[in-house]
Amino acid sequence: MATTKQVQAAMRNVKKARAGAQKKRSIANLPAKTRTALGKQGAAVCQAEAHRRTLAQDPPRALRRGQAPQPARPLEDGPSRAELARALRHD
Length: 91
Description:
Layout: H1 4-24, H2 32-57, H3 61-65, H4 81-88
């Protein structure tokens, strides 16, 4: 998990990159293939966030009843994808 200092530094970097991209139009000057990939990646993140919010508002029936099976997590070296997403979320 990222430290507080690392998160703050990442946020500063994103702000600077966004300002630079608006000023220099660096995204517009990228190849079409790269721009398409960036758009698809952003859309996937938005869709995942919307799905997460929907589940938070109305959990599946099995979860409401407490009958949902607990998945067995395989042994691995690092955090799961869900744990990474949870750590990177800033809401």
